[in-house]
Amino acid sequence: MEKLKHVESISEQEKSEQREKTYLEGRRHCCVFCRSFKLNKGAFESHGIGVFCTVSCHDCNGVWSELYELLGVREIMHGGCTS
Ligand SMILES: [Zn+2]
Q1: Which pTM was predicted?
Q2: CA of 15 to the centre of ligand 1 (A)
Q3: How far is the CA of 1 from the centre of ligand 1 (A)?
Q4: Where are the domains of the chain?
């Protein structure tokens, strides 16, 4: 009974944080709500130095944003400037 009460007292914020943790730890690209792999990714949009992408689920119609952060730079071609 005590355990059930505890589960009921978890707020939506806490549930959301748990889903985020599972999502990031899982390293699998599936729905945060129902774990379906039928996802629709939107365009990447920049936001400061971060980038986010809106993703939706075909199975449960859930929608969330994936947040990306700049991790490094890989030089591909020197542009020719001398400075
Ligand atoms: Zn889903």
Answers
A1: 0.62
A2: 15
A3: 30
A4: 2-69
